[in-house]
Specification:
Helices cover 66% and strands 0% of the residues. It contains six helices and no strands.
Length: 168
């Protein structure tokens, strides 16, 4: 099996940046986390569209997609640029700028997504008839047997926000 980097590229990378192995591994992990977060936010948006007839999903589901997409695009491009440049370093301003952009977009996205998430509507069943019937009006309206879609969307939102937080 042929190595991914040539011997010359590995030598240049080691001279220019002794921590390039760690950076490459972290970029691969960030790409994987961004891909998982993208899938989870897209699934939450699909659930919201299906059950609540919103045109483009809940804004708290698609707003966090911006930092996720930036990370999903930037990390593989940065890695491939290192390969194409045969170990020549990329200006650190690019790395700092893109990571700062991900943070500037990611922190408000997480705060707003958590603040307006579907999971704030969750409540237990408060009233049940003796025969087990659960009336879906009044006190029980937002319970899981009456509104299962908000529980599905809320679980997806929580998982996606966890992955976005790990990404940052």
């Amino acid at each position: 099996m042929r190595p991914l980097f040539s011997a010359e590229t590995r030598r240049r990378q080691q001279e220019n940046d002794p921590k390039w192995h760690v950076k490459a591994i972290l970029q691969a992990i960030c790409t994987f986390l961004a891909f998982i977060a993208l899938i989870l936010f897209a699934a939450a948006t699909a659930v919201t569209n299906k059950y609540y007839n919103l045109l483009h999903g809940d804004w708290s589901d698609w707003m966090p997609l911006f930092p996720v997409l930036i990370s999903l695009i930037y990390n593989p491009v940065s890695f491939s640029l290192r390969l194409r440049r045969h170990g020549k370093p990329i200006h650190p301003g690019w790395d700092v700028g893109f990571h700062l952009l991900i943070w500037v977009l990611g922190v408000p996205s997480i705060v707003l997504s958590v603040g307006w998430g579907w999971f704030w509507w969750w409540q237990p069943v408060l009233y049940r008839y003796n025969n087990g019937y659960i009336p879906c009006y009044g006190w029980n309206f937002w319970s899981e047997p009456c509104q299962p879609a908000i529980y599905t969307a809320g679980k997806l939102e929580i998982a996606a926000n966890v992955f976005l937080g790990l990404l940052m």
